[in-house]
Amino acid sequence: MDLAPPPAPPAPAAWMRLANPAVFNALADRLLLPLAVLTLAAFAFGLHGAFFASPADYQQGETVRIMYIHVPAAWLAMFAYAGMAVSALGTLVFRHPLADVAQKAAAPLGAGFTLICLLTGAIWGRPMWGTWWEWDARLTSVLILFLVYLGIMALWRAIDEPGRAARAVAILTLVGAANLPIIKFSVDWWYTLHQPAAVFRIDGPTIHPSMLVPLLVMGLAFLLLHLVLMLLRMKTELALRRIERLQIVAAERGGAG
Amino acid sequence: MTTLRAIMIRELRLARRIGAGAGLGLVFFLILIALVPFAVGPDQKLIGRIAPAILWIAALLATLLGLDRLLQADEDEGVTDQLLLAGTPLPLILLVKALAHWLATGLPLAIAAPMLGLMLAIEPAAMLPLTLSLLVGTPTLTLIGLIGAALTVSLRRGGLLLAILVLPLTIPTLIFGVTIVREAAAGRAVATPLMLLGGVTLLMVVIGPVAAAAALRLARN
Amino acid sequence: MSGSHAGFILAAYGATALILAAMIGASLLGWRSARRRLAALEAGRGPAGPRAPDLRAP
After folding, report:
1. Nearest to C15 among A63, A123, A242 (CB)
2. B32 pLDDT more than 50
C-alpha cells in the first residue's frame, strides 16, 4: 500500500526471518524427525495408559476409554482454530507470508480433529444416552465448529489466487473467532433452558489422577501430531507456491523466446 | 451525509424496481408459512409450538435470498469503485446498504409478524415479543450476511457458499429470537433473551460493516 | 459392565485411526507430489505437472 519503501529494519526479528521460505524449510527439516518420534512415543505411552493403566469408570464402565481420544480431539479442534486466528492476524496485520501458509495448512487438520470429536462423541453417546446423536450443548457446539471449518475450507477452494484467498479466509476466520464464543454461550444457554437436569458427561468435572495422566499424554500426542502435520503441510504449500512461480517464469520465457 | 442519503435512496429505489421490495418479501413469507401445514399436518397445536421457529427460519431464508447480489451488482457495474472514491468511509456506506436491505426484508417481516403469527396459532401474549424479537434480531442477519456477501463478491456462483459461510454465525440470533417468543408464550419474562439479542445485534453493527469493508478492499488489491 | 461395550470402544478408536490416517496420508502424499514436481521443474524441462505452462503464455 505504501509507496515509500520501508526503512531498513536494524535486525529482523526471528519470526520475520522465517518469512524466508528457505529459513523456514531448514528449520522444519530439523524439527520434523524428532517431533515425529516424540509423537509416536506419546501415542504409545498414552494408548497404554488409556487401555491398561487406567481404571474403568464406576458409572460409565469401559466406555470411558473413548474419552482419551474424544477430549484431546476437542482440545485440538479449538487449538487449531486459535492457531488459524493468530495466523489470520499475521496475514492481515503483518502481511507475513508464512501466516497465509499456516492458515491454509491448519484448516483441514482442524476439521479432521473436529470430526474425530464428533464421531467419538456419537459413538460414546450410543451406550450412554441410548442414541447416536443427542442435541447436547457441547456436541452441538462442536458440530457448529465443524461447519465453520467446512465453510473456511470451501472459501479456500473458491478463490483461485492464493494471496486473495488468504486475506478473505483471514477475515472469515477472525469474524468466526469473534462469533464462536457467542455461539458457544448461546448454545449452552439454549441447552440449560431446555434441559436443566445435569446429564452425564463424557468428561466429568472431577477426574481421577489415574485418568488424568493418560488424558494429558494423549492430548500431548494429538498436539505433537498436529505440529508435525502442520510443518509438513506448510512445506508442501511453500513448494506448491514455488512451483507456481517457476511455471509462470517458464511460461513467460517460453512466450518471449 | 448527503452521500449516505443518496446511497440510501438509490438502494431503496433499486429494491422497489427489481421487485425485491417489501411487497414481494411478504409474499415469500406467506408462501413459506402456507407450506408449513402441508409439511407437518394441519395440527394447530403442533404448528403453534413450532411457529416461532418457522418465522425465524423464514427470516433467515429471506435474508439470504438477495445477499449474493447485494454487493456483486455494484461490483459488476463499477459502482463500488465510485463508492471507494467517494471519500465517505466504506464501513458507513456498507452500513447504509445493509440498512436498505433490512428495510426490504427484516422490517416487513417484523411488521407482518402478528398477522402471520395468528395464522400460525401463536399465543396472543407472544405477539408483541415476536415483533420485538424480529425487529431487534433481523438486522444481525443482514449484517452477518453483509460480511458473507463481501467475501464472495468476486465469485460467480457464490450463493451457496455464502449461505454456508453465513448460516452458522446466525445461530445465537436464532436461539435468542426463538426463545423470546417461547418464553413470552409461556408467560415468563423475556428481558434476558431480549437483551442478549440486542447485544449480539450491537456487536454485529460494529463488526459487520468493518469486516465487510475490509473484505471488499482486500478483494481488489 | 466390562466388555459389554467393547464394540463401541473399538468403533471409536477405529474411526479415529481412520481419520488420523487420512490426515497423515493426505499430508504425506501432498508433500511427495509437490516435492517431485518441484524437483522436476528445478532440474530444467521436467514434467511440468498437471498444468501445462504454455497455456499461461501471454
Report:
1. A123
2. yes
Interface of C with A in 1-58 (CB under 8 A): 1-6, 8-9, 11-13, 15-16, 19-20, 22-24, 26-28, 30-31, 34-35, 37-38, 41-42, 48-49, 51, 53-58
In a domain, A178, yes or no: yes
In a domain, A8, yes or no: no
Residue of C nearest to A108 (CA): C23
Are residues A154 and B162 in contact, defined by beta-carbon separation less than 8 angstroms? no
Please, which residues have CB within 8 angstroms of residue A32's CB and are 6 or more apart in sequence?
A228, A231, A232
pLDDT band at B68 (very low <50, low <70, confident <90, very high): confident
Classify residue A6: in a domain, yes or no.
no
- Whether A175 sits inside 8 A of B171 (CB atoms) is no
Q: Check whether A108 has a pLDDT greater than 80.
A: yes
C-beta of residue C6 within 8 angstroms of C-beta of residue A62: yes
pLDDT given at position A2: 45
Counted residue by residue, chain A has a size of 257
Q: In this predicted model, what pLDDT tens digit does every residue of C20-57 receive, in sequence order?
A: 999 999 999 999 999 999 888 887 755 554 555 555 55
**Are C57 and A254 within 8 A, CB to CB?**
yes
Asked if the structure places residue A139 within a domain, the reply is yes
Phi (first) and psi of residue A61, to 5 degrees:
70, -145
Angle subtended by helix axes B90-104 and B106-119, to nearest 10 = 30
CB atoms under 10 Å from CB of B1, counted, come to 7
A164/B211 touch (CB, cutoff 8 Å), yes or no: no
With residue B134 as reference, give the H or E element that holds it.
helix B127-151
Q: List the CATH number of the domain containing A212.
A: 1.20.120
Show which of residues 63-92 on chain B sit within 8 Å of chain A, judged by CB atoms.
none
Strand partners, A61: A57
CB contact under 8 A, B175 and A154: no
Can you give the pLDDT at residue B114? Answer: 86
Number of domains making up chain A: 1
Decide if C55 and A112 are in contact by the 8 Å CB cutoff.
Answer: no
Helix ranges (H only) for chain A are 14-17, 21-51, 67-89, 97-129, 137-158, 162-194, 209-256
Give pTM, 2 decimals.
0.85
Phi then psi for residue A165, to 5 deg, are -60, -45
pLDDT at A25 > cutoff 60: yes
Q: Enumerate the β-bridge partners of residue A57.
A: A61
Residue A9 pLDDT > 90: no
Environment class of A233 (CB within 10 Å of its CB; exposed 0-12, middle 13-18, buried 19+):
buried
